[in-house]
Amino acid sequence: MSPPRHDRALVRPHVVTGGRAHPTRNIFDLVTLVIASRTQVAGLSPEKRKVMELCQGGALSVAEVAAHLALPVSVTKVLLSDLVDSGHIVTRASAAEPAEPSDHLLREVLDGLRARL
Amino acid sequence: MGSALVSDRLYVRESVRHSVKILIVGHFAVGKTTLVGALSEIKPLRTEEQMTQVGEAVDDLTGVPEKTTTTVAMDFGRLTLSDDLVLYLFGAPGQERFKALWHDLARGALGALVLADTRRIEESFDVMTLLEERGLPYAVAINEFDGAPMFPEEELRDALDLLPTTPLVRCDARDPASSTQALISLVEYLIESKKRESA
Fold first, then answer.
1. Which of B3, B10, B12 to mutate to test the interface with A (most CBs of A within 10 A)?
2. ipTM
3. Which Pfam families match (chain B) (predicted)?
4. Which domain holds residue A83?
């Protein structure tokens, strides 16, 4: 899809994402865990290869991927979204749901914190 | 500390299937980054986001970019709480002008810990308003800076205009145990609030 001309910012992040400011799907929270599900990176852009390289090693949150690659979170989401679409990346945790956290989840957090004291 | 769950590895442990976040908020230099650093099992990370104004015409080259773009930095850290669960702590700037960032931060967050400084109590109001507008529950932790005046709890509650149920605790953001205790107060409050709602 070719974006309207006025959406093309003259900044690097938009070049990285092919001119898009928004991911194809809105499944990513800052703490959604992502991991590579493939090893081959043929045909991917240099930025996507970097994402894949990082995500081969294990699961990381979207925020961690952004920080390690020194990319804005918004750009990282666009890249990850494309990589999910192409089957290179899978999300591991259905992280923070916009819905209320369950009592069970809150207790797990509480127990985990108490165990650190 | 010293628990088998504590990990300085880059990646989240393999067994972890859930992740949650809590916001650490407050005004400039109140100790957000210090608290995140004291609790995080990884070296705290930083993300930067460029904020542009809504509806801004980016092809207008006559515009001065500095006027329409701001870079916002967020520091965050990670704590593995169980085989299944990791907690992320995000230190978030308290200014109203970072609305877009706040939307992303607050969405799905369990709650927030407001760090306050008794020398600049009134500077905490903005961030508390932001949380209230989003309906995000919070606890307030007074970061005990060396040499900062101590006030009785009632006086602080009045000054902060807290609801009787909102937890107010003291902490030393440099100290992992003290900061953990502040988070525990917040999570206990979240559980109690839930109970009250369903009662």
1. B12
2. 0.86
3. ATP_bind_1 (PF03029)
4. 5-114
Number of domains in chain A: 1
CATH of domain B18-53+65-198: 3.40.50.300
Look at B16 and A10 and tell me if their CB atoms are within 8 Å: no
Taking CB atoms and an 8 Å cutoff, what residues of chain B touch A12? none
What pTM value is reported for the model? 0.86
Q: How far is A43 from chain B (nearest CA, A)?
A: 26
Show pLDDT as tens, one digit a residue, over chain B (199 residues): 434 444 448 999 999 999 999 999 998 889 999 999 999 999 999 988 777 654 444 444 444 444 466 677 889 999 999 999 999 999 987 776 677 778 888 889 999 999 999 999 999 998 999 899 989 999 999 998 888 888 899 999 999 999 999 999 999 999 999 999 999 999 999 999 999 888 8
Please enumerate in sequence order all residues whose Cβ is within 8 A of that of A74, keeping only pairs 6 or more positions apart, or say none: A13, A21, A22, B49
Residue with tokens 């460029």: B50
Cβ atoms < 10 Å from Cβ of B4: 7
Nearest-CA residue of chain B relative to A28?
Answer: B104
Cβ neighbours of B74 in A, within 8 Å:
63
